[in-house]
Amino acid sequence: MSAPQLVTIGGRRVRLTNLDKVLYPQTGTTKGEVIDYYTRIGEVMIPHIVGRPVTRKRWPDGVGTADDPGMVFFAKDLERGAPSWVRRMPIEHSGGPKEYPLVGDVPTLVYLAQVASLELHVPQWRFTPDGGRGFADRLVLDLDPGPGTGLPECAVVAGWARAILEGMGLEPYPVTSGSKGIHLYAALPPRQTTEQASALANELARAIEADHPDLVVSSMKKTERRGRVLIDWSQNNGSKTTIAPYSMRGRPHPTVAVPRTWEELDDPELRHLEFTEVLERIDEIGDPMAPLGFHAGGREAESGPLSAYIAKRSADRTPEPVPANPLGAAPATPGSERPVFVIQEHHATALHWDFRLEHDGVLVSWAVPRGVPHSYKRNNLAIQTEDHPMEYATFEGTIPVGEYGGGSVTIWDDGRYDLEKWRDDEIIATLEGRPGGPLGRVRLALIRTEGEGEKSSWLLHRMKTDADGRPQPDGEPVVASDQADEPRPRSGRAARRRPAVEERPKESNPPTAETSGRDLTKLPRAPEGTDAHRVMRATAATPAVAQRAAARWGEAAWAEAKWDGIRAVGVWDGHRLRLFARSGNDITHRYPELTGVDAGFGDQPCVVDGELVALEPDGRPSFPLLQTRMNLERAGDISREARRTPVRYYLFDVLAIDGHDLAGLPLRERRDELERIASRVIPAVAVPPVFDDVDVALDTSRMLRLEGIVVKDPSSRYLRGVRSESWLKVKLTRTQEVVIAGIRPGQGGRSSTFGALLLGIPGPDGLQYAGRVGSGFSDSTLRMLMNKLTPLRTDENPLVGVPRLDARDALWVRPELVGEVEYGEFTPGGILRHPRWRGLRPDKAPDEVVREDLPLQ
To answer: Of 12, 131, 344, 677, which has the fewest beta carbons less than 10 angstroms from its beta carbon?
Structure first.
């Protein structure tokens, strides 16, 4: 068996064991493949199971065969050894409460797969904020074929049920169960009890049976099921569960419960699908059941305290609670339990803390960029936001990028509070957080300083005394969760480098060229009459280039993080920063947060080299996120997206200062000059740390989930436009630049764009076919790519070696655009396995693309 691995997924550490253990003997499917499936399917699966208690069927030793099935365990309680971060909720049983896992993120799915939970089953209701059983939000009909019938008969019955449900205003969605039959799901109107849902399902089953008694039965008696399809309505009972959409099945073959289109049900060759086919169809057509995601068709409302909250969110696109009732909960009655508060750490476009107090049936909310002040000597800004529903008091999860407030939300602390004063311009309360939590017991005041209602400005103040007039002790400074455990460089030069986002205090007497340790006046200057702009353009066109690492590096090497961004050479003229791409194109206008302000380099002109980087809410660099900025041209679009997706400029070299060329200096000396000129730059510009120990750098990059590292010789000169062993890139994630050569038409929700891109990599015989990619595209990316590819349409196939099956419906394009994909591996035939789109590379030309996994010559 393979050795155990400790991996980080979504910021959580999961121990994986026996990845090569075969769980499906008939197909040779391993545990590693099962974990890979749940990792990749999580994006579409989680919306259908979030907030619901999960019961599981586990096959620790595999499913076996039809003749020798493996031992299966039915699990409700979460195992004692489960990670503490796996969310759980108790449900009372006759033998006492059992704690059920809740699946709201990919790490939890991976953990459940690690313990061989192949099948995940959920009810048709979700937990309420207080841990109770909520209303039914989905109706399910289980069409179970009896002896002598199969999927074709179930499809016929599904069509009859569809006609009745649509006549009632309920839109049904079919799912082939992966076992025998078909499930039909439909969103229910608000506030339906599970008993009402069961009664409705029973009446539907009986009505269809009455019209088609020869093929349909609603009775559970097995003696009546031969040659007929049972409509099992009982799974709407609050104590019953149904196999979750996209769950694998513990059958001899690794089949899946798959949402299907109605057109597919008309296919006489309809069959159950295996997990590899499901991943391919998701890449091609997305999730046909997406409208039932998260909240089973949650509805919007136009008035009431929560109308602003509801108007900003789409229930089918965010895991946040989106109530049907805009009026909020009923206000607490006098003498009831103290009101609640919650403080949530929110890694959105900018990290902040959401401060929420229960009041009049809603959570009155403020965004606090620096969190709760730890001392009465300081006040922190708080911006009032829209009121939130009471359900938000327990919300944790990741809001998808592109949605309002996109980013991860975790509870920093919560508890109850005692209210002293609540006025329109002042609130005073004593909050008591969780035992052992970061807040403790603290008396706080909110004081309005400007504006009214949403977006008004307040000060959050820690009172000097408690409610009894006694001195109130200081608390601990608020620290983001990802900073609290951030690894620190351990030795050497790295120990004295500042973190990438640390803000340095301004110096009263910054060093000059004469006091920086080297006399720059002795370095060569640019020719007279050559302005900084022209010098910068020449440098941008030929920056130094890293070579792929083919061997070990010298002991004197140091390492820098590879930030998964795009290269940019910057020229500072003493007042303004201009940015140029590797191609030499001027990209200054695209990043006004860097170029439209005083970047802080001082009076001396300089030329610097670095990467433009966009950060996910958890602080991880994201090339796909950067794509939202790279191709914008209109000022309005740029300004709007700059607020949503700000970009950082991470510097790693300086090429010229005050007209003096530094390229001939050793890297260690250029680095000293870089740190000097960047000592007072704005927070969006930074000089990340370097590591003297390359192995430590690799370990840290893995821990922080970075793209990789660049190993450099500190004695090396800056070699413009040259690949050399002085700079070696070491990737931790497999990425490949590709040339777009064609598209395959889309279906369903992608019918107006495309289903997949056909890719090529230049080779000795031409543009060699490298496979197709159909996943990783947002709706806006699909539209953007379609607009760019349509003018490039051609009748000529530019690819070499494309299989006839992939070429049969291809629409060819001139191979002029370069993109980048993440992938699992190359097949022996040179095809990318499991590619996922990362974005366009406008800084690269097609003839620059090389296959990354080939050995260096």
So the answer is: 131
pTM score: 0.46
Secondary structure element (H or E) that encloses residue 310, with its range: helix 307-311
Instruction: Give the pLDDT score at 542.
Output: 59
**In Å, what is the CA distance from 215 to each residue of 145, 166, 172, 175, 177?**
10, 21, 20, 20, 19
Q: Which residues contact 598 (CB under 8 A, 6 or more apart)?
A: 575, 682
What is the sign, positive or negative, of the torsion defined by CA atoms of 695, 701, 705, 706?
Answer: negative
Question: From start to end of 663-810, where are the E strands?
Answer: 685-686, 690-691, 708-712, 723-731, 735-744, 756-763, 766-773, 799-800
Start-end of CATH 3.30.470.30 domains in the chain: 507-731
Mean pLDDT of 482-495: 38
Greatest mean pLDDT range, 102-111, 448-457, 473-482: 102-111
Q: Can you tell me the distance from the alpha carbon of 175 to that of 519, in angstroms, rounded to the nearest whole number? A: 73
3-state secondary structure (DSSP) of residue 253: coil
Q: How far apart are CA 203 and CA 199, in angstroms?
A: 6
pLDDT digits (tens, 9 = 90+) for 821-855: 988 778 777 888 778 888 898 888 898 899 876 64
Sign of the CA dihedral running 271, 274, 278, 284: negative
> CA angle, 609 as apex, 731 and 482 as ends, to 5°?
55
Multiple choice CATH, 133-240+257-273+286-294, 3.40.50.150, 3.80.10.10, 3.30.70.3300, 1.10.443.10:
3.30.70.3300
Q: Would you say 540 and 582 are in contact if contact means Cβ atoms under 8 Å apart?
A: yes
Compute the mean pLDDT over every residue in the chain, rounded to the nearest whole number: 84
Considering the domain delimited by 507-731, tell me its CATH architecture.
2-Layer Sandwich (3.30)
724-736 pLDDT, tens digit per residue, is 677 887 777 778 9
CA distance to 51, 78, 322, 518, per residue, from 101 (Å): 9, 6, 22, 62
Residue 157 CA to residue 161 CA, distance in Å, equals 6
Helix (H, G, I), strand (E, B) or coil at 508: coil
CA angle, corner 458, sides to 453 and 463, nearest 5?
A: 135
Residue 92: how many CA atoms within 13 Å on its side-chain side?
A: 4
Quickly tell me which residue has 């108790």 as its tokens: 90
Angle at 847 between CA 841 and CA 853, to 5 degrees: 75
